[in-house]
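Table S2 (continued). Query chain:
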Amino acid sequence: MSDHESTYVPKTGVEKWLDSRLPIIRFGADYMSLPTPKNLNYWWTFGGILALCLMTQIVTGIVLAMHYTPNVDLAFASVERIMRDVNGGWLIRYVHANGASMFFIAVYLHMLRGLYYGSYKAPREMIWIIGCVIFFLMIATAFLGYVLPWGQMSFWGAEVITNLIGAIPGIGEPILIWLRGGPAIDNATLNRFFSLHYLLPFAILGCVVLHLWALHHAGQNNPVGILIPKDRAKKDLVPFHPYFTVKDGFAIILFLILFALFVFFMPNALGHADNYIPANPLQTPAHIVPEWYMLPFYAILRAIPDKFGGVVAMFSAIGVLFVLPWLDTSKVRSMRYRPTMRTFFLIFLAVGLGLGWCGGQLPDAPVWPGMPSPVIFDGALNSYLWLTRLLTLYYFVFFLVIMPLVGLKETPLPIPATISEPVLPGPDAPLGAPSAAVPASPEKKG
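Corresponding output:
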């Protein structure tokens, strides 16, 4: 892919002038004609969906910023004014609020696809690392935006999360005061969060450009996970347009139907009712929780009894993703041919869902009401806290222990010689002929 030659030919004088100075049209044309493996499935459509989500968030965010007032006395009322008095304000706000959830649904599926098919392996490490940077910026942007409505959950969520920074030895307290603009959450805090929330989406957009650039250079992975040799390019590769633009377009339509279902029929289903109560520093909510897409990391934070240890564990849960290309020791990319690793991956999916569930529960609430634990533990074993700790342990063991060891010990299934073999019996054989899969030797592994 990296040696793909440009086929763009400027036709008008304006195009020639621009192409000689800033070849932005050439970059777009080359991307549309980029040779792409013909066996990509619908799990590869989430890149286009994510691009749509990002542009939707930026456009609706700019409109909302025109009417929002970043002041602790007026912020909550300004949001209600957007809902009631601004033409189409209710729609813009619901699209923006639910768009954040849709954004995270798509990015989690996009990352899980990359994890399953080994898209982080050489030569695509930079694609994965830049994607992790985007994910981290998304979490920061979402947290800052969650504070802006200035409801009860907004205020107390900011109180809890910013207090975590103060747990960092030595530098935590000065950073906390700088971030808040003072010793407590107040007007200066809201102004800072509003400014950063407005800025970070454009930083995400810049990282997306780098992400696409790295993708253009290294090329697409594929479900089989093998490299496509040059002598197979004409048989195994097709232009991105029109083959995959049509496929992406169909997936985007289905995604927009789901999006519209939430916006028009259950716009507050993914939010928290307490955020429709104005922020009150003197009244603590019964249960402080972040948005649903942060619940797994919030659960990991609460799983550690030490405050600083919880902060380290929470950031390590994201940080471990950055070094994933070097933790996986297997020579085979796709888990389609790694049955042992696929089993551990399915358990990992269940653990991620379990962490999300535990993050939304009271940590000392009983998992099974009415079922006593041994007296010596005073019921502690029957609590979400201990369940969360077990799930957190597996989360880190999966990356730091299972992936390196299984990659060394596992015997993978035979890998096809070309990406055509899972569909056709052989590269040039007629239908009905036997397939010529090859064993998983280092020479044949992608």
